[in-house]
Amino acid sequence: xxxxxxxxxxxxxxxxxxxxxxxxxxxxxxxxxxxxxxxxxxxxxxxxxxxxxxxxxxxxxxxxxxxxxxxxxxxxxxxxxxxxxxxxxxxxxxxxxxxxxxxxxxxxxxxxxxxxxxxxxxxxxxxxxxxxxxxxxxxxx
Length: 141
Hints:
By secondary structure, the protein is an all-alpha fold. The protein is built from 9 helices and no strands. It has helices at residues 11-25, 30-36, 38-48, 51-58, 62-65, 69-73, 81-93, 106-116, 119-125. The protein is elongated and about 55 Å long.
């Protein structure tokens, strides 16, 4: 009985294979990989739990595998510091709550914490006073 190619594969080897697929075919969608290399796909599920989690670990931009803008926005890789600040300011202008527990999409909050160290620091970086975060005031006014 033959052992599948990726049966006892390390995460690093899987990531290398994913990146090679991205370079060679410019597609890392799961449907494409299942057709090209089913054993790689199964190894990814064993090691990472999901295909998107493996792509995130490999550093593949969400735009390469997320089909819609909504899916990309729900991925923390979509959120740069500038996008986070812009989203915070848009919520403040619309008088929406900036409490971390009420932020949607959830990936925005996670990205804010990753980029700024805490959600309060992200709100400060946008030039707002995070105290209370319900009726946020612009710092200095």
